[in-house]
């Protein structure tokens, strides 16, 4: 099929209730996947579930049925596109299951990142819910994006100089961090540049040179562009690795496509596109959703008054000498060890500075006030390194009492 000048393939799926015939479908899908090089969408009644949570009632779930479906999904690299609306799509007396779904390969996620799947109301004479799948290439605006330090910035030869100059503009940590955020955003736009656009430009230039007559000048240019392209590809991998939050896979193996797919799935999972209101009705209007979320958290964190229960008995007793050790001034080496022990790409603070920034810039002096990112400055920052230190101290004290 062709949509918006993009070629893609749709497979309408029906899984036979009989296990033997359903295995024939799994074999067929594996064969189709071998020659699949375009965005591929699979939707329909798979007559299988991916986890026990997709079944409610009836006899105990069959682990082999789940495992066979999981195997085919993993073998051919499919991604569940999720859904909005009620969880179960198939109903029978005393039994509910999610048998109907839409799945796609990584090329589909890259091409149609905003694909939505909606579970529609069930018709009177059917025990299945219809599912509506809408392919969308445009990324929906999510409001103003907060400042974040990108790991790829630290691979640029001019980053440290930019950081030092920006940091020197403040007289305290808060002012320096704000100045750095402003300068880094401008530096990213005017100097570092858009990674994907730079990659496309280099690839086009390399293709032109490889088609031109070969000579020594041409060969030197090709070699130079290849070196630049290697750095750009590494920066691209870092970009998607950071956004994917997949810390159990290490960067360096050119997993860009995988990280990209994981990033898109994470965004889809985190986006709230439908909520059920107090009347039991599903709501998808963005303005109403925003108000429902605001109202929910306002009520959740509103103090209803009354006395709090006594807390003394909820914590282990610590003798006075241990309290002195726990409350002692943070030692510079202790702070450094805590910072270095943090996950480099863990969530940053409200200033957008992640642990990687401090780990790499720890020994960098800031020119204006002759201080650096170390002890007195970083200890005053509202970040989790102080919590890491105090938690470690507390654990050590409890274990040695």
Topology:
Layout: E1 2-3, E2 6-7, E3 9-14, H1 19-34, E4 40-45, E5 55-57, H2 63-75, E6 79-80, E7 90-92, E8 95-97, E9 100-104, H3 106-111, E10 116-119, E11 131-134, H4 159-167, H5 173-192, H6 195-211, H7 216-244, H8 256-270, E12 275-276, E13 282-283, H9 286-300, H10 320-326, H11 332-341, H12 355-361, E14 365-366, E15 371-372, H13 375-379, H14 384-400
Parallel strand pairs: 3-4
Antiparallel strand pairs: 1-2, 4-9, 5-8, 6-9, 7-8, 10-11, 12-13, 14-15
CATH class of the largest domain: Alpha Beta
Helix fraction by DSSP (H/I, runs of at least 4): 40-55%
**Major β-sheet strand ordering:** 3-4-9-6
Mean pLDDT rating: 78
Number of helices: 14
Low-confidence stretches: 246-254, 366-386
What is the element string, with H for helices and E for strands?
EEEHEEHEEEEHEEHHHHHEEHHHHEEHH
What is the overall silhouette? extended
CATH homologous superfamily (4th level) name of the largest domain = Endonuclease/exonuclease/phosphatase
Strand content range? 5-15%
Q: How widely separated are the two ends? A: 70 Å
Number of strands: 15
InterPro entries: Endo/exonu/phosph_ase_sf, Endo/exonuclease/phosphatase
Protein name: Endonuclease/exonuclease/phosphatase domain-containing protein
Domain Endonuclease/exonuclease/phosphatase: 12-115
GO molecular function: catalytic activity
